[in-house]
Design brief:
Layout lengths: L2 H20 L3 H13 L1 H31 L1
């Protein structure tokens, strides 16, 4: 990945961790606003990383439940 994607993905990981710790989904929106004020490109990369990581979480939960029902 390039620098924008690498930085955005690191921020996404930290933001999702903060959301889990503080139970506040608005953290993602606030970080996105801060990024967008200076770099729309970074904001878009951040939001893409958030969506990809959230989708990954949902898919893993589904697969985990599926595997438990087979056992």
């Amino acid at each position: 990945m390039g620098i924008v994607e690498d930085l955005a993905d690191e921020l996404a990981k930290e933001a999702l961790k903060a959301v889990d710790e503080h139970e506040d989904d608005m953290i993602i929106e606030r970080v996105a606003e801060i990024l967008g004020a200076d770099s729309i490109t970074t904001q878009e990369a951040f939001m893409t990383a958030i969506r990809v990581r959230k989708a990954d979480r949902r898919a893993r939960v589904y697969l985990s439940k599926l595997n438990k029902t087979k056992a």
